[in-house]
Amino acid sequence: MKAIRSNIKGTSFGGIVPILKKIQDLGIPQLMRKCLGERVPQAKYQFHDVFIVWTLGALCGCKRLEQLTALKEKMAFIPGLKFPSHDTVGRIMKKKATENKIHEHTSKDAVPKTSYTHYNDNIELNRMLVQTTKRIEALKEGISYTMDIDAMSVSTERRGALRKIDKKGKLTITKIGFNPLICLIGDLPVYLSMRNGNASAAFMLVECFKNCLQLLEESKIKVGRVVSDAAGFNKELMRVINDKGIKFNMRFPYKRNMHVFNKQIKNSSWKKTEIETANFFWDCEVTDINHTMTKHYFEKEEAQTYRVVVMRIPNEETRKRIQTEEESERREMIKKKLEKLAEEKKLKELKKPFEDVHWKDMGGYLYKFYVTNDYEKTSEEIIMEYNKRGNAERKFSFMKGDFAWNRPPFSEMNDNAVFMIAAAIANNIFRGVMNLFKEKIPGLKLSYRIDKFKSLFILTPCAYIKGRFVFFYQNILYDELMV
Hints:
Blueprint (H helix, E strand, L loop, with lengths): L8 E3 L4 H10 L2 H9 L10 H13 L8 H8 L10 H10 L5 E6 L7 E7 L2 H13 L8 E8 L2 E2 L21 E2 L2 E5 L2 E8 L9 H14 L3 E7 L6 H9 L3 E5 L7 H8 L4 E6 L4 E12 L12 E10 L1 H7 L2 H19 L16 E3 L2 E8 L6 H9 L2 H13 L10 H25 L12 H9 L3 E4 L2 E4 L6 H4 L2
Parallel strand pairs: 4-9, 9-10
Antiparallel strand pairs: 1-16, 2-3, 3-8, 4-7, 5-6, 7-8, 10-15, 11-12, 12-13, 13-15, 14-15, 16-17
């Protein structure tokens, strides 16, 4: 048999072709060009080329810019696709960086200390993040969304990273890195505020929320609820959210010196209930308390009053003392139910022993506190809603592992802000594409990680023959996705 040389161009990453076509059909390149502007006429690559190429690279499993080099050869057969080298991608990304800002803070100690915190809010790219997410139909008008706000630690020893400094002005033992503040809607990052490793979770939180909400409102995306940990317990932030007609749900930072509040707890009437989470059945009691925020004497605005939902369970000593035979049998039933769910692997698996540090032990009971401006939901619903914010932590883990948030490639913080927003755009396009394709892809689950999606969908032979893409050995009807 004589071998015949073929000049047919193709790739084993054929699944990227319908994704690129969907990106083009939805006008995302034009949208990015509108957001980012044009480079000089003689430039070979435009800004949008770089962000689209990194999106394609991320969906093919690239975690580092230099991995684009091998992928470029596999994508060369796609007509019209401009695929810059990894050096060019990095260089052009850095051109969209904005200058870092510096926040100066002077402590109120007897001997005041001044600290400086660097942060970076790249409004241009965050606007493109929101608009691209809407264009890929991952966010839609007419839906009221819940937003999670949380800070994330990115461990890195890049030149622009800093360690936290303690009250004595000494470096702490925490890892060096960045502490970006992220706004999430479900699995979608919609705003990233980059800040250095010495920034607290509450640093510039109000400004971050205002910026994010403004960009969402520009795209007619509605936020109906906001969930945050205790960092969000900020009078100004709560007032801003409340004035917008948005409901919030935050962990209430209880302190033992809240004497009036303690009296309210003591005089409260408690309701027995049971709350089921991913890992626990809480056989507990709940109550509501109206709490008025403390008001400084020079503040002109009236102090706001919000609803605090309190949950308590007896500690071990109290449980042994008050437990009746009936309650003992009930607890034994709950224990057996948990054991059965664990055997069936229906409980969330934890990689390390879980220690919930937010219980407050007082008077023989363990307490948890939640503050909200929602007077309609039941206490149980408020508790369950807050408990679900653990999804934000899992999303950060996903972004670090699948979209390289844990591998900032550049030396400077503002440059890495560009990269992390580019990675967020790639993630949101990935989520949008899965939603658009899920009905035509058998076995596709929206919970899939990139590696699983790559093996199921991306890795399929494809060639460009006589002006059309031809897919080989397909279990998925890629031709239907090209329509």
